[in-house]
Amino acid sequence: MPTPVEIRLKRAEKRLDIAFDDGTSFALPAEYLRVESPSAEVQGHGPGQKVLVAGRREVGILRVEPVGHYAIRIAFDDLHDSGIYSWAYLHQLGREQAERWAEYERALAAKGLTRDPPKRGR
């Protein structure tokens, strides 16, 4: 299993850059990490229960915290912080980013949802 040799939070760019010991590296946008959170709130408690998270285009990352020697917890500025991202899951997200993102956009369109946050009243 690849393990990270560097994890760098790019707060202004709203992304996490991660390099693994197998030579791969990925730039993972905050929005992508948020909508693919491994938390039960997003993934559900069983197969087929994944929740489609919309309106997170502008989400940022507040902080990244180590969880043992196998994962990180990411705290987002929409107050979601319950997902624990294992090294294997982060590597998978990087490898599958194009396919997962295309599927996410298709799912949003099919449900008439958008990446944009809800408009606030005046």
From TrEMBL:
InterPro entries from the UniProt entry: GBBH-like_N, GBBH-like_N_sf
A GO MF term: metal ion binding
Presence of the UniProt keyword tRNA processing in the record: no
Keywords: Iron, Metal-binding
Record domain Gamma-butyrobetaine hydroxylase-like N-terminal: where: 7-91
Pfam families: GBBH-like_N
Protein name: DUF971 domain-containing protein
Native source species: Dankookia rubra
Native organism taxonomy: Bacteria, Pseudomonadati, Pseudomonadota, Alphaproteobacteria, Acetobacterales
